[in-house]
Amino acid sequence: MLDHLVYATPNLDTTVAEIEQQLGVQMVEGGRHPGLGTRNRLLGLGGRAYLEVIGPDPDQEQPPVPRPFGIDTLTSARLVTWAVAVTDIDAVVARARAHGYDPGDPQDMSRRTPSGDLLTWRLTPPATAGVVPFLIDWSTTHHPTDSGLPKAELTSFRARHPDVEAAQRSLSALNVDLDLTHGTTPTLTAVLRSTPGSLTLT
Description:
Residues 1-139 form the VOC domain. This protein is of the alpha+beta class.
């Protein structure tokens, strides 16, 4: 099940302003990621799915390691990856490995919301390019959509990949469905719609 789309940007405020203008919907502050040098804004996509726009946090010191999702090398915003929600992430990883795909070892993550609540989750290492999602397990913590995010409708989510068969094998090992066709480079495309307008993220 789709958990969230990750739209990475070199300038969070600028990108969020562009999205809000196109959709006529105000995004909400997600929170900061201490030590990673990033912060995010969120927009609901219906159900327990959401869009995460993530970029550098100017209020944090330069992190000792590169920011996630290739943010440090971006020159423009890009839909870099997506996450699938699972329960018992260790079992899902073991099953995927048994079917020939290794999602990586789950990592513990956390952030505080603007209201001070601590969210904790576990995830497999996200790729900065490709169409295969990373896994996320929220366990007993509150899901970001539980706070009632402002919403836009996700009307389309699809991908292109130069080796469709290989990508499909990895998706199948995770028991994930995705509209996948051939393309020269791995590309994700999502179409969002609201009453005022629509927006395509690539």
